Amino acid sequence: MIGKSFSVKVLGHPITLIHGDLTVLDRWLWIKDRLPITKDKEALIEIGCGTGAFTIGSALRGYQALGLSWDERNQRVASERSKICKTNEAKFEVQDIRSLHNRQDLHEKFNVAICFETIEHILDDRKLFKDITTCLKPGGRLLLTAPYYYLNPPTVSDNGPFITEIEDGSHVRRGYTVAMFEELCADSNIVLEKVTYCTGFFSQKITGLNTIITRINPLLSWLIILPLRILPLIFDKAITKIFNWPPLSICIEAYKPRFN
C-alpha cells in the first residue's frame, strides 16, 4: 500500500487506473465518455468503490462524489489517495451496500449513481438495484457494469460453481444479459437507455497473464505487463470484431424518470 500511495503522489490519479488488471482502465474510459465535466456541483454516488479510483476520478471531473464500500482498509486507502489528489469533493464511507435501504439520508440525493462489477457479488440483486435507484434524484442517471453472461471465462473459476446461498466476496451468478437488465430496470421503474460492452480480447488475455505472474512476484508482473498495456487501446476493438470475441463486461446506462 505504501508503494502505491507513493506512486499516486508522484503520478497522480492516472496511476490508480493501472495499478492492477487492465479492466479498471477499460471501465474508466467507458465512464468518462458518459460522465461529462460539470460545474454545477452535481452529486454522484459509487456503490462498491473499492480503493476509490472511480470516485476520485469523478470528483476530478467536478462531481461531489461519495464512495461506499464495506471494506475499512479499502476506504482508508481511498481517503488517503483522495487527499493526495486534492479532491475535497470525494468522500468515502464504510457501508454494507446490502443495507443501503436503511440510509434514508441518501435517498433521492444524487444526480448520478455508478456501480461497477459489484452486483454479481450480491444475492438479492433485485433489491440492490432498487436501492441504488432510490438514491437517484428524479432525472438521475445510472451507469453500471457487470460480467457478461456469454463471456469466455478468463479463469477456471469463472465457470463456477457459483455460490447461491452465502455472500463471501465471490460471484454468486455467472453474469448478465440484456434481457436481465431490462427486467431489473422495469422492476425498479428506471428506463434502460443503452447497453454497450467493454474489455475485449487483449485486455482479457493480458489481465489473465497479470494474475498468473502476480502470484509469483507482483513487481515482476508490473514490469512485464506495463509495456503490454498499450495493446488493448490500439487493437482491442478491431480484434474483438474480427474474431467475434465476447466482451468481459456488459455496461448499461439508465435514467430515472422525472415524472411519475
Structure report:
The protein is α/β, with parallel strands linked by helices and 260 residues long. It has a single domain (2-200, 249-255), classed as Vaccinia Virus protein VP39 (Rossmann fold, 3-Layer(aba) Sandwich), CATH 3.40.50.150. Helix content is 38%, strand content 19%. The chain is built from 9 helices and 7 strands; from the N terminus they run ααβαβαββαβαβαααβ. It has helices at 2-11, 23-32, 53-60, 72-84, 125-135, 178-187, 201-216, 218-225, 230-242, and strands at residues 43-47, 64-69, 90-94, 110-116, 136-147, 191-198, 249-255. A 7-stranded mixed beta sheet has the order 3-2-1-4-5-7-6, sandwiched between helices. Helix 5 (125-135) links the parallel strand 4 (110-116) and strand 5. Helix 7 runs antiparallel to helix 8. The protein is globular and about 50 Å long. The N and C termini lie far apart (47 Å). 40% of the residues are buried. The model has no long low-confidence stretch (mean pLDDT 93).
Mind sketching the topology for me?
Blueprint: H1 2-11, H2 23-32, E1 43-47, H3 53-60, E2 64-69, H4 72-84, E3 90-94, E4 110-116, H5 125-135, E5 136-147, H6 178-187, E6 191-198, H7 201-216, H8 218-225, H9 230-242, E7 249-255
Parallel strand pairs: 1-2, 1-4, 2-3, 4-5
Antiparallel strand pairs: 5-7, 6-7
Helix pairs in contact: 7-8
